[in-house]
Design brief:
Length: about 100
């Protein structure tokens, strides 16, 4: 089975459009799964979509090769530079792909 990279991006919904623009500029992340809204607590605060913690996050999942992984990381770094106080996290790891 081929190994690919799984990327998980968890970010505040306020930066979603900017992230998609940067991914498009880097010709990366054109195939993804998005889960929204996502709620939780991380190092940049709580997101529950309620009157106490009104912000929401989203999760983007991408399976890609190493070249695309590097372009996605670059795009996310650029968004984080634009919005240093927003919650934007990226996790990547190798995954075995089995299409069933």
């Amino acid at each position: 089975m081929p190994l690919r990279t799984r990327i998980e991006i968890i970010a505040n919904q306020a930066v979603e459009e900017d992230l998609l623009d940067r991914l498009q500029a880097h010709k990366a992340g054109s195939r993804y799964t998005k889960v929204a809204p996502a709620f939780g607590r991380g190092t940049s605060g709580e997101r529950h979509g309620d009157h106490i913690w009104p912000e929401e996050s989203f999760i983007m999942l991408v399976y890609c090769d190493a070249d695309e992984r590097d372009r996605i990381i670059q795009a996310v770094q650029e968004v984080k530079q634009l919005f240093p106080d927003e919650g934007i996290k990226l996790f990547s790891f190798e995954a075995e792909i089995r299409e069933i």
